[in-house]
Amino acid sequence: MTYLQINGMDLYAEVAGDGAPVLLLHGGFCSLEAMRELSDSLVPHYRVHAFERPGHGRSADIDGEYSYARGLADTLAYLDSQNLEAVHVIGYSDGAILGLLLALEHPGRVRSLTAISANLDPSAFSTDEEHQSLVLTPARQSPVHTAGGPDGDGASASAAKPDVERLHYERLSPDGPEHADVVLNKLFRLWTTEPNIPAADLTRITAPVLIMAADRDSIRPDHTLLMAASIPGARLCIVPGASHGLVAEHPKLISTVIRGFLP
Q1: What is the DSSP string of 160-195?
Q2: I need a surface site. Which of 9, 54, 160, 236 has the fewest CB within 10 A?
Q3: What is the pTM assigned to this prediction?
Q4: Phi then psi for 158, rounded to 5 degrees?
Q5: According to the UniProt record, where is the region Disordered (predicted)?
Q6: CATH number for region 2-261
Q7: Domain residue ranges in the chain
């Protein structure tokens, strides 16, 4: 396994393939395993870079709170460590938020952006009850950031099936299975207070952008439409019969759409 010193932390990282550089940014409480099938589909055509943020996958947790500003700083430090001036960014959920911030604040580093199930602020969640559940049930799997089942119903599937991301965490984390709830508590505090990106700011994005989400996503459809409409020339893809876990639920479709978008 490969670990890199990023901002004073040992973060797990992977690189595979040849061609134009692609950076994968995973979601909250996810490891790189959540994007494994997508990565495998890209490796024959691109050089795929990926790393796991603190408290995720094989990277140990930090003592402090999480923030998207800190995640963005780690992303920039990773790009610098790999001598990557500009990359095609593919971000999922929290990773998609980081991709938007990267395109806004460091446009020269982004060749293109695929943002899957992103949100601009915490009001984007589908219902007030779903938003409140982030605060009230931090020890349980997230109804917002955890993949559902193949039927696309994340809520009902989560009740009937194991939390795949938690199983990955328990298997991979150097902090041990019992630390999962610590990470989830910090993530829930993050998700209910950040990000805070004005939609009007998206007009400054100059890179080609693909906005993706699911028709049953926990991010409201009108919020996804607002993001796509606010970015000049952005493409929009709504995946039918899927939840916020669309990357795991429909990996072949997601890969096909992204491959068609990337140059």
Answers
A1: HS--HHHHHHHHH-TT-GGGHHHHHHHHHHHHTT--
A2: 160
A3: 0.90
A4: -65, -25
A5: 140-160
A6: 3.40.50.1820
A7: 2-261
